[in-house]
Design a protein that fits this description.
Elements lengths: L18 H4 L16 E2 L2 E3 L14 E4 L6 E9 L4 E10 L4 E4 L9 E7 L4 E8 L5 E8 L4 E4 L8 E2 L2 E5 L4 E9 L2 E9 L4 E2 L14 E5 L4 E8 L4 E8 L4 E3 L13 E5 L3 E5 L10 E4 L4 E5 L11 E5 L4 E5 L12 E4 L6 E5 L11 E4 L8 E7 L7 E7 L2 E7 L9 E4 L7 E5 L5 E6 L10 E9 L9 E10 L3
Parallel strand pairs: 1-23
Antiparallel strand pairs: 2-26, 3-4, 4-5, 5-6, 7-8, 8-9, 9-10, 11-13, 12-13, 13-14, 14-15, 16-17, 17-18, 18-19, 20-21, 21-22, 22-23, 24-25, 25-26, 27-36, 28-29, 29-34, 30-33, 30-35, 31-32, 35-36
C-alpha cells in the first residue's frame, strides 16, 4: 500500500550523506526545542474576538475537515441546585464563534457527536436531559439546519458514550455509555440510514465517559479509560471494523473518565485532563504502540468534561470548556499544534512468484533517543548477509529489477547516498536491522523508507537474489 508523504523532506542534494548522524536541520518542529523522552507540546489560551460560547461541560463538539468548521452543540452547567441543559448551536470558523439559529434543533442535552465526512453532516446521538433522562434520537446537521433521522433500530437510550467516524469504512462507530439500565458495553455502527450492532468476538468492558477517536492514518478507532460506575479504567483498545483488540503499551496514563480525545494527523490521538477523584491536568499522545506524556509548564488548568476537536485549516487541536469540579465551567479555549509522534509501517511487495517472499515488519517506531528496529522474516534459511538501505523517496511506480537478473522483483525505495546502508546476518530465515535515532530535535518529522536485498542461491532467477517489501518510519516523539 502506497502512502503519500504529506511532509516530504528537502531534496536529497541539499542533505549530508549521513542523515541520522548529522543533526542537520531537516524538519524543525518549533515545539521540540527542548526535546526529551517526554513529548513537548505548546498549549496556548486563545484570545477570541467577540468571545466564546457560554461555559459548559459535556457538549457535542466535532469538526468538518473539508470546510474546517467546528460545531458545538448543547452541554450542561451545574448551578448548585442541579444541572441546566443547553440546546444552542455554535460554529467555529478558525477565527471566531458564531451562534446559529437553525429552524429545528435537538432538545437541550449533554451529548456526543461526530462528523460524517462521506455525507458531509454532523451526526448526534442521544445524551442526557432534564431529570437525568437518557435519550435515543439521532440527528444530523448539514451546516444550516438540524434534521431528526427516523431509524428502524437504534442503540438504547444513553449518555456519555463514545462516537467517532471511521472514514475508511464510512461508518459512525459508537461504544458504551450510561443507559437507563446502567453502564453498557455494546458497539454500534451508523451508515446514514440505519444503526446496526455488529457481532464481535471480543468486546471491551462496559464503560462511559471514555476517550474515543478515529486514527485515520492507521484506520483504527481508539478508546481509552472511562468509568465503570465504580473504578475508573486505564486500558487502551482499538477497533478495526472487524473486532476490538486490547493494546498493551509499556506506558499508560492513570485511570480516569470524563475526558475527550482528538486525532491529529502526523501526531496520533491526544487527550487532555479528565477526572479521577479530582479534575486532572495532564496531556497524553497515543502513536499506536505506546502512550507518551506531554511536558509543558503551560498546560490548561485541571478540568473534566471539556471537549476537543481538530481545526484542520490551522492545524491545531482545540479544547473548550470543562470544569475543575470546584467552580462553574470554564469558557476558556485552548489550542495546541505540535508534538509530532513517531510512526512506522510497511508498503508494497518486493518479489512475487518465487518459493520465498521475504517480508519486512516494523518492531517499533523511530522515537528520538531510541533505536528503530526493522525485522525480516521469510528469508532464505541458509545463513547469509542481508543488506538493507534507507532512502528518502519512493519509486512510483516501482522500478522493475528484471534488468538486474531479478524478474518479478521491484525496487520500491530510491537507493540512498553512502552512509545509511545497514547489514544484518540472517539466522533461520530471519534477521533484524537496527538504526539508532539521535536525540536531535531537527529530525522530527523526517520520513525514511527502507528496503532490503539478500542472496538466495537456487531461487530461480539469474542473479540468485531477492528483495523484500518496504518499511517506512517517521521520526518523532
Amino acid at each position: 500500500m502506497n502512502r503519500s508523504l504529506s511532509r516530504r523532506p528537502a531534496p536529497l542534494a541539499a542533505r549530508p550523506s549521513s542523515l541520522l548522524s548529522s543533526g542537520a536541520a531537516l524538519l524543525l518542529s518549533i515545539c521540540a526545542a527542548n526535546a526529551s523522552a517526554t513529548a513537548q507540546i505548546a498549549w496556548t489560551q486563545a484570545t477570541i474576538p467577540g468571545g466564546t460560547p457560554p461555559a459548559r461541560v459535556d457538549a457535542g463538539f466535532a469538526t468538518s475537515r473539508a470546510s474546517g468548521a467546528s460545531l458545538l452543540f448543547g452541554g450542561s452547567v451545574y448551578t448548585g441546585s442541579g444541572y441546566v441543559f443547553l440546546g444552542d448551536t455554535w460554529r467555529w470558523d478558525g477565527t471566531s464563534w458564531q451562534q446559529l439559529n437553525p429552524s429545528a434543533s435537538p432538545s437541550p442535552r449533554a451529548t456526543t457527536m461526530t462528523y460524517d465526512e462521506g455525507r458531509a453532516v454532523w451526526v448526534l446521538f442521544g445524551g442526557e436531559s432534564t431529570g437525568g433522562a437518557k435519550l435515543t434520537d439521532t440527528w444530523e446537521f448539514d451546516g444550516n439546519n438540524w434534521q431528526q433521522i427516523n431509524v428502524p433500530v437504534a442503540p438504547s437510550p444513553r449518555a456519555h458514550h463514545g462516537m467517532a467516524y471511521d472514514s475508511a469504512r464510512q461508518r459512525v462507530v459508537l461504544f458504551g455509555g450510561y443507559s437507563n439500565a446502567g453502564v453498557v458495553g455494546d458497539t454500534w455502527e451508523y451508515d446514514g440510514t440505519a444503526w446496526t450492532q455488529p457481532t464481535l468476538a471480543t468486546n471491551p468492558s462496559p464503560r462511559y465517559s471514555h476517550a474515543f477517536a478515529y486514527d485515520a492514518t492507521r484506520q483504527r478507532t481508539v478508546m481509552f479509560g472511562g468509568s465503570t460506575g465504580g473504578p475508573h479504567l486505564s486500558d487502551t483498545w482499538e477497533y478495526d471494523g472487524n473486532d476490538w483488540s486490547q493494546k498493551t503499551p509499556a506506558t499508560s496514563p492513570a485511570p480516569r473518565a470524563q475526558l475527550s480525545m482528538v486525532y491529529m494527523p502526523e501526531r496520533g490521538c491526544m487527550f487532555a485532563g479528565g477526572y479521577s477523584n479530582a479534575a486532572m491536568q495532564d496531556t497524553w499522545l497515543w502513536n499506536g504502540i505506546d502512550w507518551r506524556s506531554v511536558s509543558n509548564p503551560l498546560l490548561p488548568a485541571p478540568r473534566r468534561g471539556a471537549r476537543m476537536a481538530m481545526d484542520p485549516v490551522r492545524d491545531v487541536a482545540l479544547l473548550f470548556g470543562g470544569t475543575d469540579n470546584t467552580s462553574l465551567p470554564s469558557t476558556a479555549q485552548f489550542e495546541t499544534s505540535c508534538a509530532r509522534l513517531a510512526a512506522a509501517g510497511t508498503f508494497g511487495v518486493g518479489c512475487v512468484g518465487y518459493s520465498l517472499t521475504p517480508e519486512l515488519r516494523v518492531a517499533n517506531t523511530p522515537v528520538l533517543g531510541t533505536t528503530f528496529v526493522i525485522e525480516g522474516i521469510g528469508l532464505p534459511t541458509a545463513p547469509s548477509f542481508a543488506i538493507g538501505f534507507f532512502g528518502l523517496s519512493r519509486n512510483t511506480p516501482p522500478a522493475s529489477l528484471t534488468f538486474a537478473g531479478m524478474p518479478n522483483c521491484s525496487l520500491l525505495v530510491t537507493p540512498p547516498p553512502p552512509g545509511i546502508i545497514l547489514g544484518a546476518v540472517t539466522t533461520n530465515g530471519a534477521c533484524q536491522w537496527s538504526q539508532p535515532v539521535p536525540m536531535t530535535p531537527s529530525l522530527v518529522g523526517l520520513e525514511l523508507d527502507f528496503q532490503a536485498f539478500m542472496p538466495a542461491p537456487g531461487i530461480g532467477n539469474p542473479l540468485g537474489a531477492l528483495v523484500t517489501n518496504a518499511a517506512w518510519g517517521r521520526i518523532g516523539f
